[in-house]
């Protein structure tokens, strides 16, 4: 998606019309097509978007409105502790391949990741 910025200002505007109005205030001596040289379109990457519904009160009645939720980060973060209890974790068979993949990541919590030391000369354990 994109936003509009006015030269010399930090604020971002969601539409070209709002950016033009802000540029006319900031540069009163520029008129007509000259004002377009003072605004720029800035593109932003959206990493995720999904439809969502909110209930909005309008005129004393609830109305269900569809919105598009979007942001630059991850929409969901899954932690192992939310799904696997500490007692069950000892009984899990991770496997050599997954253990090696996990050793390349930094741990999020204080639970140590089992280390698999493989040099380039040794074959993989799976």
**Overall pLDDT score:** 79
Shape: elongated
Helix content: 10-25%
Low-confidence stretches: none
Radius of gyration, in angstroms, nearest whole number: 26 Å
Count of DSSP H/I helices: 3
Order of helices and strands: EEHEEEHH
Strand content: 25-35%
Main β-sheet, in a few words?
Answer: 3 strands, antiparallel
Number of strands: 5
Strand line-up of the largest beta sheet: 2-1-3
Distance between the termini: 44 Å
Going by helix content, strand content and strand pairing, the class is alpha+beta
Question: How are the elements arranged and paired?
Answer:
Layout (H helix, E strand, L loop, with lengths): L1 E5 L5 E2 L2 H11 L12 E5 L4 E11 L2 E11 L14 H4 L6 H8 L23
Antiparallel strand pairs: 1-2, 1-3, 4-5
Primary descriptors:
27% strand; two-stranded antiparallel ribbon; alpha+beta; single chain; 3-stranded antiparallel sheet; 3 helices; 126 residues
């Amino acid at each position: 998606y994109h936003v509009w910025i006015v030269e010399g200002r930090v604020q971002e505007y969601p539409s070209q019309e709002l950016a033009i109005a802000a540029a006319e205030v900031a540069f009163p001596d520029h008129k007509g097509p000259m004002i377009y040289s003072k605004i720029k379109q800035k593109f932003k990457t959206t990493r995720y978007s999904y439809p969502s519904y909110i209930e909005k009160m309008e005129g004393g009645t609830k109305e269900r409105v569809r919105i598009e939720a979007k942001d630059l980060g991850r929409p969901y973060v899954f932690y192992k502790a939310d799904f696997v209890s500490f007692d069950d974790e000892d009984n899990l068979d991770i496997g050599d391949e997954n253990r090696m993949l996990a050793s390349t990541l930094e741990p999020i919590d204080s639970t140590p990741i089992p280390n698999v030391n493989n040099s380039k000369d040794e074959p993989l354990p799976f």
